[in-house]
Design brief:
Elements lengths: L1 H15 L4 H30 L8
């Protein structure tokens, strides 16, 4: 839990110094997009792992 609070604090401090409205919201949207894409990749990997997918044919 402490790690999540640390990430939240770093995230908040990073966006406090950005003054331009468009840039600020672009980076927030990009952050959300990146988190969603990572969650999809993680889900796909865990799904393949749980169904017994063979990752190599050696």
């Amino acid at each position: 839990m402490k790690t999540l609070l640390l990430f939240k604090e770093i995230y908040n401090e990073a966006f406090k110094s950005i003054q331009n409205y468009i840039v600020k919201h672009y980076f927030k949207a990009f952050t959300i997009f990146t988190i969603v894409m990572f969650a999809i990749v993680l889900y796909a990997f865990l799904y393949r792992l749980s169904t017994g997918f063979v990752f190599s044919n050696i």
